[in-house]
């Protein structure tokens, strides 16, 4: 009889991969090939969970907050295993190295902004949203984008990521940042650049 | 002038949408049934064709490859059949293709799980994954057997791939896909972990095999840091556990 590892659905409806039921998944492996495989599984898990729950920020402390928003993946109570902060620190820096996250704010190594969509992808999503909701050529505040009255693909996006997406769009003439007293705003244009 | 207001109109609308949806499911069911009949007919026609042209198919490579291509184009898998070798082999006496194809799939599974299990996979787990890949039941009629896997691996031998069937004792087998001899110590570790727990510790090795603690430690060090067949787990109070992913069944 071999031991079997099952997928599991969490309270928030996320499907945990079967490796999440493997106890050594929660101990950083030292053999390089094993470690590479383990790290790839962890980063994929973190990004897909973040996308599932629309989480943008991951802090080193999140490994130690019981009942926190990351608890479902950093803690497996069925096998009594928990991701250690040192292990999470390793994962954070690996993700930053691989472009899956950035230190935000910069010049520290405890908090990252997760790129479950790359800024380039966010730029497209943002422009698509502005177009489909008929908001081209009008001035929008950042607040109107991050907290729209009707939930959108952009709801809750951190301002720093929003700014990066806009600056990508402005390179192709599809958006323009308008600096103002109250946090600033943006105007979107149709792709051809016509007003 | 048509007036479409009022309760009666609302009721009428509800009724008509209900009958539309009923109609649509009837049509879908009829279509499905007719597709199934067509498929069965087609299948028997194909078998008939294969039987009548058996000689040509067997002797003419160009014709054979065209026939195979036709099967592939219309989505009929000549390898998937109710019996060993499929109806294709049954009607034509080809065994080779089925076994070769199985070999390719074995390689596929071994390579894709190698980082996790260090290149050693439990026979039942391999068969389970193979069955999943081919969409056949894991055991029972039409299923893949241990003998099939062993035969396919024999065929891979001339390629120098180093695939080998390991005997772990007590009728348990595993497939090794890395070019390295599995020594008795590693086999002992895999054997003990495969008894159902999925892991070993220094102590369980010492008591199971009457090894010295130093030997157990050295073996575990090799299995973990040289071969990658063990994953360490330091979150248990009774000491470090060495898990052997190769002995576990993975729900994909």
Return the CATH class of the largest domain in chain A. Mainly Alpha
Strand order of the largest sheet of chain B: 1-3-2
Helix amount of chain A = 25-40%
Helical coverage of chain B, percent range: 55-70%
- In CATH, the homologous superfamily of the largest domain in chain A goes by the name "Winged helix" DNA-binding domain. Chain C. Domain 1
- Low-pLDDT ranges of chain B: 81-85
Q: Tell me the series of helices and strands of chain B, N- to C-terminal.
A: HHHHHEHHEEHEHHEEE
The total strand number of chain A stands at 11
**Through-space gap between termini of chain B:** 62 Å
Q: How would you characterize the overall build of this protein?
A:
The complex is a heterodimer of chains A (195) and B (252). Chain A is α+β, with helices and mostly antiparallel strands and 195 residues long. Helices cover 36% and strands 16% of the residues of chain A. Chain B has 252 residues and is mainly α. Chain B has ten helices and seven strands. About 2% of the residues of chain B have low confidence. Helices cover 60% and strands 10% of the residues of chain B. Chains A and B meet through strand 1, helix 1 and strand 6 of A and helix 10, strand 5 and strand 7 of B.
